[in-house]
């Protein structure tokens, strides 16, 4: 029996599909922007609830980021089942409502513990938005327009790292920390109204039973594992009891889930999808890329603020050229991904990112912004725009329509886990590098000791000979000595950052190996294989 004729899709990106893309982009911007906006607020949150004289430890306020990430990772595995059970439109609107309500609660928090709890609520909504958005857009676009539509979905992925630090710095400087959450209220209301209008009602298929055992293994496993990994920078070593205990327990649960997932007909995460070669190599490449790139991405604003003394707003503006570069290549790569195999596109993007990352290994304490740093970041952005969306397109394009939600879930989980691991690795390398740099560690210890006992400065200089040697060159000219010491420390810190960028560059270079296995020949899409044309109501393709 011949298969039913496939529904017709326009070749160009038309208004109907752009209307749907607008809903998804708005929701994704809220979710991704919030991750980077809160990062900027952490120093302010240390004194918000306890006052200037009694600041909270950084490790405590960092839980506002960790709690969101853990909630995000925990709920992502539910997306595939929930999309089939409740329908993508209803679930997407519920996710928007949950995220917006969580944002409002965060702004009303009166203690750090309340804020951490409400960030979990926010994360539960945010975790559904990205994989659901990919599912909605994939079903609306059809296989021939996937690359161009994925390029549109890439907009919020750029706006997060670029706009987050800028917006967060401005809101904190000009208004208050409450507004980094309150800004989501008008966005959330607008997104809900827009989604109700733009998304066609789809027919949920609640035929699948829920994998309760899979849920009991996978979600706590992910939460424990990511908590253990995210504790590495705070503990300073991977071998601490806290890291090994939580990460080990999480790993045991995840391994148990892998064995379990092949038994039920409809597992929480469908690992059988890895039989699809394109999906497998796209996810493996995305995993290594996300760990390396997002770990390295953390270094740039940190370098600008800690070494160069820039404020949060200025650091955000200086990172913007990276996003501009990505905005140039992303639509080009998206159009090419509809015509060429991604194995002929992605390696060029990865090679460009690797070149830029190796360029960052040369930074020091006074690297020229316009003469060196900004051009290198722009080059990295060009590579990023040519990499992320074609990889996602390759992963999703050869799945059938009913597999898209589960394939999107696998992609999002792998990216979330890889990002957490990459950030932890890079943070540990940087922290240990700064701690082991003699001048940096001596200057920090000298500053702390002399602040406590200013009358005993001369004897302290004997305990810290590298500091004493620099200050001694200027005799009684204390101002000149302090300036020279600051410059020397700045250069030493810059060299540590350069060495850490080298680790990130090596990690990115590994992606070129896995990218060699991406498809280099045109392969037929299976996106519509299980779609009955009678279910499709063009131009809005949702079933």
Low-confidence stretches: 1-6, 531-543
State mean pLDDT (0 to 100 scale). Answer: 81
* C-alpha termini separation: 23 Å
Number of domains: 4
CATH superfamily of the largest domain: MFS general substrate transporter like domains
By CATH reckoning, the class of the largest domain would read: Mainly Alpha
* Helical amount: over 70%
Rounded Rg: 25 Å
Q: What is the level-2 CATH architecture name of the largest domain?
A: Up-down Bundle
Query: What string, H for helix and E for strand, traces the elements in order?
Result: HHHHHHHHHHHHHHHHHHHHHH
- Tell me the structural class: mainly alpha
Count all strands and give the number: 0
What is the CATH fold-level name of the largest domain?
Growth Hormone, Chain: A
């Amino acid at each position: 029996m011949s298969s039913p004729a496939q529904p017709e899709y326009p070749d160009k990106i038309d208004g109907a599909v752009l209307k749907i893309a607008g809903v998804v982009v708005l929701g994704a911007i809220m979710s991704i922007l919030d991750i980077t906006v809160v990062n900027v607020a952490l120093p302010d949150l240390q004194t918000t609830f306890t006052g200037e004289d009694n600041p909270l430890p950084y490790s405590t306020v960092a839980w506002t980021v960790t709690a969101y990430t853990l909630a995000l990772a925990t709920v992502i595995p539910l997306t595939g089942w929930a999309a089939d059970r409740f329908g993508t439109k209803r679930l997407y609107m519920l996710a928007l409502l949950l995220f917006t309500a969580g944002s409002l609660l965060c702004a009303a928090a009166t203690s750090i513990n309340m804020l951490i709890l409400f960030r979990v609520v926010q994360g539960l909504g945010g975790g559904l938005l990205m994989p659901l958005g990919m599912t909605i857009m994939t079903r609306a676009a059809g296989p021939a327009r996937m690359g161009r539509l994925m390029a549109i979905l890439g907009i919020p992925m750029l706006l997060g790292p670029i706009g987050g630090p800028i917006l967060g710095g401005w809101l904190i400087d000009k208004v208050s920390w409450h507004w980094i959450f309150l800004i989501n209220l008008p966005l959330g209301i607008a997104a809900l109204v827009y989604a109700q209008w733009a998304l066609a009602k789809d027919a949920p298929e609640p035929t699948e039973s829920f994998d309760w055992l899979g849920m009991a293994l996978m979600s706590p496993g992910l939460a424990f594992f990511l908590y253990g990994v995210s504790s590495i920078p705070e503990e300073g070593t991977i071998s601490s009891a806290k890291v090994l205990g939580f990460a080990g327990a999480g790993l045991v649960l995840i391994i148990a889930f892998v064995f379990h997932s092949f038994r039920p007909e409809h597992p929480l995460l469908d690992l059988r999808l890895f039989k699809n070669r394109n999906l497998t190599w796209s996810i493996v490449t995305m995993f290594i890329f996300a760990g390396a790139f997002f770990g390295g991405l953390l270094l740039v604003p940190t370098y600008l603020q800690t070494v160069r003394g820039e404020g949060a707003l200025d650091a955000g503006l200086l990172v913007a050229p990276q996003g501009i570069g990505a905005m140039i290549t992303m639509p080009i790569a998206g159009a090419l991904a509809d015509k060429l195999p991604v194995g002929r596109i992605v390696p060029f993007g990865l090679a460009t990112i690797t070149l830029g990352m190796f360029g960052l290994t040369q930074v020091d304490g006074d690297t020229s912004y316009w003469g060196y740093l900004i051009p290198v970041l722009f080059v990295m952005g060009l590579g990023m725009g040519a990499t992320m969306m074609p990889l996602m397109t390759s992963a999703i394009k050869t799945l059938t329509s009913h597999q898209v939600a589960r394939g999107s879930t696998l992609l999002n989980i792998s990216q979330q886990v890889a990002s957490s691991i990459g950030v932890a690795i890079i943070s540990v390398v940087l922290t240990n590098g700064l701690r082991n740099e003699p001048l940096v560690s001596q200057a920090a210890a000298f500053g702390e000791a002399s602040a406590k006992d200013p009358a005993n400065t001369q004897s302290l200089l004997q305990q810290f000979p590298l500091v004493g040697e620099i200050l001694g060159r200027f005799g009684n000219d204390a101002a000149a000595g302090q300036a020279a010491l600051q410059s020397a420390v700045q250069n030493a810190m810059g060299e540590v950052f350069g060495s850490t960028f080298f680790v990130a560059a090596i990690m990115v270079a590994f992606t070129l190996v896995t990218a060699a296995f991406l498809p280099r020949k045109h392969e037929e899409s299976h996106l519509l294989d299980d779609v009955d044309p009678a279910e499709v109501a063009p131009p809005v393709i949702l079933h």
